[in-house]
Please model this.
Amino acid sequence: MNEIKCSGTITYEEILNAQDAIWKTPKKSYIVLLIIVGLCAFLLLVLTLLVRFFPTLVTDLNGGQPPKPLPFSIALPIGIIIFTVLYPATLFWTKRRGRKAFQEDKFLQSPSTYTLSQEAFAVEGDYGKSHIPWTDFVKWKETPRLFLFYQTKWRATVFPKRFLQQAEQERLKAWLSEVNMTSQKQPRQTSSDDKPSSQPPSGSR
Model:
C-alpha cells in the first residue's frame, strides 16, 4: 500500500513543541551571547570596585596615573540584568497571548484528514485542502512527538506522530529518505517555547 490515511486535531502543546524545535539553535546562540556579555559586565564591575575601594592599588598598577571614573561599568551590568529579565518576561507574555489566540482560532482547532504517500503530503479539512509534493520541502526533522516538514529554514508544517502507528512512522521516514531531503533527529529530551512560524498540518483557508 502506497498511501497512509489518518485524521486528527493538533494541540497547542504540539505547536509549542514545534516552535521550540525550530528555534533550538537561535536559543543556544542567545545563551552563549548572554554568557559572554555577562562575563564582560562582571569584569567591568570588578574593575569599578577596585577603582572605588582600592584607588592606591589601581594607581600603582596604572604606572602612577590616577584611575579614571568608569560610569559605563556600572550601567552595563544594570543593562545586562534588565536584558536577562526582559527575555523570560517577553517569552511568558508571548506564550500567554499565543494560547489565547489558539483557543479563539477555529481553523487551528478543526480536525483534518491526511493522506501521506511516496510523492506528497495532502490534507483536507473544513477550511479547504492542499497537496504538497515532498520535493517542495527543504528538509524534515523528527522530535519525540512530531514530524516537522520545512518550507524554509524557520517555517515548518507540524505533523504529530500520534496520528500514526509505529510501522506507519517507519514507512513515512523511508519515503522521506527516498526524496533525499535533509533529515534531523532531535534527542529524546526537549524543552518548550518564539516564536518561529510553525504551521499546523491543516488545509489552507
Summary: The longest helix spans residues 71-104. Residues 1-205 form one domain.
